[in-house]
Amino acid sequence: xxxxxxxxxxxxxxxxxxxxxxxxxxxxxxxxxxxxxxxxxxxxxxxxxxxxxxxxxxxxxxxxxxxxxxxxxxxxxxxxxxxxxxxxxxxxxxxxxx
Length: 98
Known about the structure:
This protein has 98 residues and is an alpha+beta fold. 39% of the residues lie in helices and 31% in strands.
């Protein structure tokens, strides 16, 4: 069953964040993940729009998403993100397709 990582990111250093994006994308692909949404326009439906970037990643399983997050590849990218931005990331199981 697929799993999704949702990230809310507030960029503080756009130049350094570009380096993070490149390293993060490479690490995500290594663990079978892909972007479903990445920094596009946000439409507030039943709330105020968040003042942050939103990214949604899909991984084959929740275990694989956790493996990616703890991986050496993402740990290097994450160190850059921690300097360049503040973020909230969480993972959730998807639903089985019928």
